[in-house]
Amino acid sequence: MPSTTPTQPISGTDRFRIAAHVRLTYDPARERHVLLSPEAVAVLNGTGVAVLRLCDGTRTVAEIVAGLRSRYDQVDDAEVQRFLDHLVARRYVEAARG
Amino acid sequence: MDRPWGLLAELTYRCPLHCPYCSNPLELAAHRDELTTGEWLRVLTEARELGVLQLHVSGGEPLLRRDLAEIVRCAAGLGLYTNLITSALGLTPRRAEELRDAGLDHVQISVQADEPVLSDRLAGTPSFERKLSAARLVKRLGWPLTLNVVLHRQNLDRVDRILELAEGVGADRIELANTQYYGWALRNRAGLLPSRPQVERAEAVARAARDRLAGRMEVVYVLPDYYGRYPKPCMGGWGRRQLTVVPDGVVLPCPTAHTLPLPRAGVREHSLAWIWEQSPLFEAFRGTDWMQDPCRGCPRREIDFGGCRCQAFALTGDAARTDPACHLAPDHEIVAAAVRAADEASGPRDTLLIPRRPRLRP
Fold it and tell me: Which fold would CATH assign to domain A15-93?
């Protein structure tokens, strides 16, 4: 099983990007967005897709939250942080030290 | 009905290695009539329409197919995540660059041990050094790299050194998979089955490495079902998540299902969708209606799906029995006796190993 503990906690200055070996794509058969990696497929909901689209290597957590606020009425900072922690722990997303 | 997520494409059973635990059929020569390039491209197109998102290209040795890059290019164009599972023999720089240009996403290289003498002996051919240079080549070309290591009595005490090797070549993942005893491995079980203390030590080493390497290298340790209380949930359930297409186009719920005495259907006669949704083989063990006691009334019946149908058949002669690996199985004594014999035996017992044969020449 993949580890769930990242080596270092995410810091406020980290900038996020989808890992090189991971692909975000749309599956027309299931009508859902998915994250593809060597041995796993993760099915995403709408907010998940929005977060991942903002993981382009230029944004911090705060900037990702701001990006979401421009599209959604209610954005929970802690929830976004938890989702990013999870994505980093599963190595779907890489955090570059800011 | 669930849609399949992954397709294992066994392009050929030809292989330069002769591993004594090979998962290919015992009667290799009966499967020489390989699908053509055009037939594979049609299979991939149908697979994508059916919902497949991941393509695992394997064999035998898939690099022995000269059209491998064309197959990968087609898969990448369809939006499939492509994963090459290889011995790495034949992965020359030219071949690797061709595959990278075709859009290959990920490479998995098998390694038999952490050092050349044992690794080459298990593989039945000098291969260790070529595997290491291919692993470095994969990293140089910027691919994510997984090392696949099949574990058994001969190398289970070397898991720490195998992990060091993986770190040394910069692997992103390592799959440490205990041997599953079908086909060649079942024939060689007495020489491959480890003792319980070996299993426990290796598991502790793997668990410590998983924590130590978290965030750098993913350590996947596949438990040996003979030593567990419950069977493994084979393929995540029969005909539920995965399908396998073998070299001559027969479609199976798992790569070992060719051993079962059930009618088979292939892509030369049927559509992939029909085979997945309606063929007798895929329908045989879907869901829970086929189960006998104790599976039928077991609260875990939708967790482990009764275990492995191929193992039930190989050990009891009835594919619908509870997997004997389960401690609740009426036939559990078959597995328990094999483990007791492995515990009592001393030494590596390697003289008993029969290499995969006859050789299917490339």
Answer: Arc Repressor Mutant, subunit A (1.10.10)
